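Would you mind writing out a protein's amino acid sequence and the numbers that encode its backbone to help me picture the idea?
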Amino acid sequence: MAFENTIITKEDDEKYGLSKIYYKYNPKREVFINKQDWVINKELDCWLWDIFYFPDPEYEHGTLVKAIWILYYKGEIIEVVLDYDINRALRPKQFYRIWQLLDLNPKQTKLISRDEIIILLDNALQTYGYDGIWEQIPNYTMELQDLTDRSVK
């Protein structure tokens, strides 16, 4: 089974403690928002969820595309900071997103190496596509660039 874009269910919330994770990053929210989506591979017991977008300093109540995503793998939780850029030279024939991996915390776990984390992220983001379950567009392509400092453990 591959990754798929789905809506988080009440059962998912209970199984993975998603409300607790959500409130860690969004403490001012009163309710765990319904209709949250994520990318999940049930066979691998792995998912990727965009949990928090950084505030835009130029616009009140605005957010950047830079965000914290949670990568879950068999009980291990990895905080991933991603940003992206669009290669505008390829438009309008192709929408090419360049995901920029800015940070991983932790960089690796007992169950999964750093290189395996990068592979899972790439696969999950390929499935996420343009906007997860909400919208996909034709001629969408992407790449994941690792901009983290590999020398730091």
In short: The longest strand covers residues 63-73. The chain is about 20% helix and 40% strand. The mean pLDDT is 87.
